[in-house]
Amino acid sequence: MAVLITGIGELTTNDAELGKLRDAAVVIEGDEIAWAGSAADAPDADERIDVDGRAVLPGWVDSHTHLVFAGDRTAEFEARMAGKAYSAGGIAVTVDATRAASDEQLAANLRRHVDEAAKQGTTCLETKTGYGLNVEDEVRSARIAAEVADEVTFLGAHLVPPGADAESYVDLVCGDMLDAVAPLVRWADVFCETGAFDETQSGRVLKAARERGLGLRVHGNQLGEGPGVRLAVELGAASVDHCTYLSEADVEALAASDTVATLLPACDLSTRQPLAPARRLLDAGATVALASNANPGSSYTTSMAFCVTTAVLQMRMTIDEAVWSATAGGARALRRDDVGFVRPGARADLQVLEAPSATHLAYRPGVPLTAAVWRRGELLTSGFAGKR
Questions:
Q1: pTM tops 0.85
Q2: Confidence of residue 176 (pLDDT cuts 50, 70, 90)
Q3: CA dihedral in degrees (135, 302, 333, 3; nearest 10)?
Q4: What is the DSSP letter of 347?
Q5: Handedness of CA 349, 354, 355, 356 (dihedral sign)
Q6: Is 202 annotated as a binding residue?
Q7: Tens of pLDDT along 94-141?
Q8: By 3-state DSSP, what share of the chain in percent is helix, strand and coil, each rounded to 5?
Q9: Is 295 annotated as a binding residue?
């Protein structure tokens, strides 16, 4: 069945040919966009929905989350707000809780967070393992994630488990753990950071994953300048995430590569780190994505709109740059061209704002503006007041 969405006040397509359209319309057929253009030229369809001047844009593409977990780290957050520095070690608290949880509990928690994100406009979501840190629990985390998320990343190299020898653990990650998890995931990641894995260990993990046919991602340069960006670029990683502390060489390397710099502003705020240098990266010509980093320790939010708002108000990104980075930029970080765009052949992932333009995302900070969401052509938001 074809559905015509018309009366669009502003349509953000992220498509070079279509551009940003006023008084626009979109046709959804099945789970794909069949047509987009001026409302005056819209073809007939089986059903018509008039959004009455509201803005429409692609669904958010959240390319970095950690949502297969159990437990709570409120106490850690309170301590950090009282002045205690963030460190990688708090991950171990979530590992204990995740190992103790049942499959049903982990799956229910994941679905709750994915549904929460979808109601706020997120229509494509990546999530990682990394709270199991043994073969059994990494495998079940990957299996549960694969049932719910659009993209799954193996992050066995999240932290060396307490009491384990670092080199022996890296051997496990690169061997039996990777062999067991690889059939369930598309990507592999490593936390290349002080307190987690050094450059040599990180390189071993990434090269082993590449040999198994997995795409590469890197957590890098979160707590200070380090080898994460350089390693990601050298090995052709799709994305290096955090990028809070960058040298000029890091910025130049990213600008000269197709590795996406994925910025996680909600995490920077929660950990009281400086915000990542978005303007430096964009002005240098690097590709930038925005993601939530939704996780129980350092960024417990699924709101991509909050990340966009922060990027505009505090990171000197324009509205268009921030929206592109949270949609097409996230798609680029996942090496996808079927999401993050509104154009024929793209997946029918749309969000309607309770506002006439995307500018209102930053102009009205903190106000929930998602009026309706289509994901794979299905209208998720009940009670939408569009004219039919």
A1: yes
A2: very high
A3: 120
A4: B
A5: positive
A6: no
A7: 999 999 999 999 999 999 999 999 999 999 999 999 999 999 999 999
A8: 35, 25, 40
A9: yes
Residue 113 is labelled as binding a ligand: no
Distance between CA atoms of 105 and 284, rounded to whole angstroms? 45
In angstroms, rounded to a whole number, what is the distance separating the alpha carbons of residues 159 and 169? 9
Query: What pLDDT is attached to residue 388?
Result: 61
CA quadruple 39, 381, 311, 363: dihedral sign: positive
Q: What is the pLDDT of residues 265-321, one digit of tens each?
A: 999 999 999 999 999 999 999 999 999 999 999 999 999 999 999 999 999 999 999
* Residue 134 annotated as part of some ligand binding site: no
User: For residue range 321-334, what is the model confidence (pLDDT) as tens digits?
Assistant: 999 999 999 999 99
How far is the CA of 101 from the CAs of 17, 105, 132, 237, 387, in angstroms? 49, 6, 11, 32, 45
Residue 81 to residue 29: CA distance in whole angstroms = 48
Is residue 363 annotated as involved in ligand binding? no
Q: Is 252 exposed, middle or buried (0-12, 13-18, 19+ CB in 10 A)?
A: middle
222 assigned to a ligand binding site: yes
Alpha-carbon distance of 94 to 72, in angstroms, equals 7
| Angstrom distance (rounded) from CA 286 to CA 88 | 27
Sheet arrangement for strand 122-128: 60-62, 122-128, 151-157, 187-192, 215-220, 239-242, 260-263, 288-290
Is 131 known to sit in a ligand binding site?
yes
Instruction: Determine whether the annotation assigns residue 273 to a binding site.
Output: no
Please indicate if the annotation marks 297 as binding a ligand: yes
For 26, the token pair is: 């979109």
Say if CB 311 and CB 317 are below 8 A apart: yes
Angle between helices 319-326 and 304-314 (to 10 degrees): 150
